[in-house]
Amino acid sequence: MDGGETTRTGALMNAIRRKIARRALGPGDRLPSVRGFAATMGVSPSTVVEAYDRLAAEGVIRARRGSGFYVTGADLPPLALAEMGAPRRREVDPFWVSRQSLDADPSALKPGCGWLPADWMPNAALRKELRAASRADDALLSDYGTTRGQLALRRLLLARFAEEGIAATADQILLTNSGTQAIDLICRLLLRPGDTVLVDDPCYFNFRALLRAHQVCVVGIPFTPTGPDVTAFERAVAENGPRLYVTNSALHNPTGATISPQTAHRVLSAATAHGMTIVEDEIFADFEPDPSPRLAVLDGLDRVIRIGSFSKTLSASIRCGYVAARPDWIEGLIDLQIATQFSGPSPLAAELIAGVLAGGSYRKHMEEIRRRLTRARRDVAARLEPLGIVPWLMPRGGFYLWCRLPDDVDSALVAKYCLEEQVVLAPGNVFSISDSARRFLRFNVAQMGDERVSAVLRRAMSASARSP
Amino acid sequence: MDGGETTRTGALMNAIRRKIARRALGPGDRLPSVRGFAATMGVSPSTVVEAYDRLAAEGVIRARRGSGFYVTGADLPPLALAEMGAPRRREVDPFWVSRQSLDADPSALKPGCGWLPADWMPNAALRKELRAASRADDALLSDYGTTRGQLALRRLLLARFAEEGIAATADQILLTNSGTQAIDLICRLLLRPGDTVLVDDPCYFNFRALLRAHQVCVVGIPFTPTGPDVTAFERAVAENGPRLYVTNSALHNPTGATISPQTAHRVLSAATAHGMTIVEDEIFADFEPDPSPRLAVLDGLDRVIRIGSFSKTLSASIRCGYVAARPDWIEGLIDLQIATQFSGPSPLAAELIAGVLAGGSYRKHMEEIRRRLTRARRDVAARLEPLGIVPWLMPRGGFYLWCRLPDDVDSALVAKYCLEEQVVLAPGNVFSISDSARRFLRFNVAQMGDERVSAVLRRAMSASARSP
């Protein structure tokens, strides 16, 4: 081939190497299709093929028969999950919202964050439990817990499961440090680098961060108001042979949608037919006005693993999550938790949480929270409407509104602009595997009380609309 | 080929299947060369070729042009870190002590466990902090913490580091859920499956469990009363190109030995010469009568990463550990902690710990604990002597005695026998990569108050000595 061809090939190879170096492409990630990439880069398909073949020869990427090229992850520098640098300049990646909102200045407004304001939480009940804990046995204050975690809390969870029609036993529940850690343990038990995992598109951004850490190949399923697009889901299960599907069936993050009974049945049937495991994240369950379909209930905790935590409704400062699954998987998860954390979650934390849940005030508290959120969802939608920001749907519960911006506005630019004014937003593409949510923002209606939000948003949108 | 050939081929295939099933060979691992394996197994190369071809046909392994055969990782069972089964029948593996002691019946005696009795801990100070917490701001009770964890606790750690001569900044410390999780995050950042890691032989059994979860190749360095055998260490570093060395320099677990200045200097020099990172676990530091040499101090937190926790001296129920390292590594660890746990440790937990550490009573408490342990080490050594159980050395601090049993006694049999009588021991080989500690037991002198221990031990030893 001629010199120009060589140069173009080299340029493509460098572009891909850079993507890999800064983890825009992680191990197990699929490279763009030859045709698509050729179109994007304005070169001939043969140039892309040449570049891919050479990178494959170098072992940087690997061809899989009939399914394109994948990053091998050979000779990687320390696993940097994200582009580093000053927060403002940092790439808008799956960590962007987490790091901005967790480390936000106390004076910052956080309509993009994923939790309720501190004064919405059941703090009075918690203070009562803390006083009780100050009088507890020495053993509770200073000993490691049992490998499965406090029995009192596991029994409370079992009682809730029973109300839903799930008959489980205490040895099917493992307490963990968080819902995220629960999923991490499951990934460690069931996944290997290069495995395929299905997620919703859009999905909770930290599912993407977590799966990147496991170096698996992530396939996004378009999400609809009644759950994942069933046809796309069934095709992906048949074609990619995924090991795992991770989802929220109820009050899905970020859309707030809830799976329909028909979709739930077909998703579970497809998983069963192909021996795929499902992780159903229940972290928003207590925000539901009434129970909606659950994969774990249809399945009876066989191939569906239920995980959850108390961070959204009780306290995020007292770390505790759980896994409910087949007893043999729990045994494997216990060993993994010992190996990687030594013990389970803080017995003191589990005791505080069990105390609040068992107390009569918790149900009343959640009823009040649900009423406040219903009002807040309506009010925020009304305040966003004049800005041309429209909810994708009106959720039946929870604190998220997944909203579409006017066509000429890029939510990543809006988010970066707002950050300069101490307003943390959640731009659509941090949730989207296919980067197809450029015009969406996820709003937390409980964090929108301050009038400044609308003003900053308006300025940010006009500034972003003007920018190239 | 003849029947004998078929049988030999089948035997080879089964041998390889077993290696894969128990993860001696992981996904992507290269199988032995045809010639080498033929020699090892005493069969003809053609038999090995036949076995490899059939396993490849089954999809268990895959040939790569010109570079041999590799494990595909297809259809792997869940990652089982240990042999399952009823506790009593369970294999004496690196999880044995953890699971037996964490889940022991409250009436059981635990001379094999790795913590102090609850009534030795600073519970009064903790109760005081819990009462204070019940009056804390809503934010502390219910919000997620910052990504690095509570600044108050990080500052207290920095002050202690400064006393040792380590000049670090607050952005060099990351709070974690436990010391073990701190090492797990470091492994996730720096290791890839198949990397080589050095540990002491014997070493803390959970280092073995954790490294097994990371599917790395672990090389044990014989441990001496002055630290790792320097000659063996230097040879292993040169020959195996390890990425990491994980150790306790002071009050080493299980031996109680402390590294000498000369050994510390040579270990760090070897690591520097070969670009190896060292993880120095400080979990027993507060039990030292006075400071001993530290790799992290010699190195100034460049290639040495310091980890620790408060589980041994303050509370194991309030989960919190830390990592101190180069700022760029901390950034990577923060992303990994977000991806796998979402937030750092409980802000409430960090606040309770900071409160106790800052309070004047903690230093006095630790002085008293050190005095009690000095007495207990002497008393227990005196009580074991008549049983023919002799300390390998008398540690200068801490609660462990690493003891040698009479020649005809297998500590694993003794431990299984004692478990039947509700006495949990720590048999030597759970600490030994080379299984060369069959005649050792690790005793926790703080857990030997009950006279029954000696009686059960005597019976167990005579029973075990008699058994084949």
From TrEMBL, chains A, B:
One of its GO terms (molecular function) is DNA-binding transcription factor activity. CDD domains: AAT_like, WHTH_GntR. SUPFAM superfamilies: PLP-dependent transferases, Winged helix' DNA-binding domain. PROSITE patterns: HTH_GNTR (PS50949). It comes from the Bacteria. Pfam families: Aminotran_1_2 (PF00155), GntR (PF00392). PANTHER family: HTH-TYPE TRANSCRIPTIONAL REGULATORY PROTEIN GABR, TRANSCRIPTIONAL REGULATORY PROTEIN. This is Aminotransferase class I/II-fold pyridoxal phosphate-dependent enzyme. It comes from Jiella pacifica.
